[in-house]
Amino acid sequence: MQDVQLFQLALGLTPPWQVTGSTFDADQRQLDLQLDFAPGATFACPQCAAAGCPVHDTVAKTWRHLDFFQYAAYLHARTPRVRCGACGVRLVAVPWARPGSGFTLLFEALVMTLVKEMAMAALARLVREHDTRLWRIVAHYVEQARAAAAFSAEYAAVRHVGVDETASKRGQHYITLFVDAERARLLYATAGRDAATVAAFRADLEAHGGAAERIRDVCLDMSPAFIRGVTDAFPAAQQTFDKFHVMQLLGAAVDAVRRAEQQTRPELRGTRYVWTKNPENLTPRQFAQWAQLTVPALRLKTARAYQLRLTFQEFWALRGAEAEAFLTRWYAWATRSRLPPIVEAAKTIKRHWAGVLRWAESGLTNGLLEGINSLVQAAKAKARGYRSPRTLITMAYLLAGKLDFRPQPT
What we know:
5-stranded mixed sheet; alpha/beta; about 400 residues; Nucleotidyltransferase, domain 5; 15 helices; 10 strands
């Protein structure tokens, strides 16, 4: 079998396309395949699909293909432009590559398979291409899959949404993530963390077939920007303040008490992490420290603040009237504690009372979002950072968007 026949079969070409020649350069470590169409061939118009359009002229094009063993392989072809009676002169789409791409479909499929498993820089070294060109491939298929999702019923079914930000790079640079809290799916990601990001999410949701008025609950932190954004964009939705952020608020208050008290109580030095966990989660050494420092006779303010934080955790197991009664009692206790950071944290909870109490009805948390954040940050760490928020957003969709990359029916 001649080499051109072998390559013809391997590429799966069908008439009128055929392999007309091949050259192999061992020094350049490269295989070049020449493709052409049979003389007198006609093609369908790429715009109106009218069959039998004659060739007007051709344009020389090149595509990077999968490696031939360890050698880079390239396809070269005269790409025809046809003359359509209705549409004029149009460039024909070749069957082995998408329009506008310098890569074959098989090469792009390899990139999309590997990019989830390895950093883009490592993938670029593996396939011997610049990472910027590879990012264009990934961005194209992610955007295509998100656009195709507009024709599904998944967005129309969204009722419960979680929103949180994650750092895109050092400094005050963030992207905001919006997830379907029921289906564990990233719906939208955008640069920034202000009220405008929520408005942008609403526009994207509705563009994909969702409806703002059908959103029943939004889980968020106590960021004034997010609160304002959700209030404006989803006025019919109830707001649930994420339990992890509420506990983070109380944890920061306990630490503020500790830092102030250790100026006069040296036994508190080096005990920061003792007060960040529940007693059952402490290491043996930390538990021994905690047991010594919580002796009532020591009268440590930090121990009192810590107990207030521990007691608040009981709230998350309550529902209905019991939850509100408990929160009322805890607030009264906290505001009488004479511990300024705890008092301030309690007043913050009071200002967000309805959203904290909403937990007792919705049970929503952003634990799912924290998991997605971990995936995104792990990918960022593996890549040693990304040059722009856009690439991080693309990776977020790839990792958590549950996108369908299968060809969509036309």
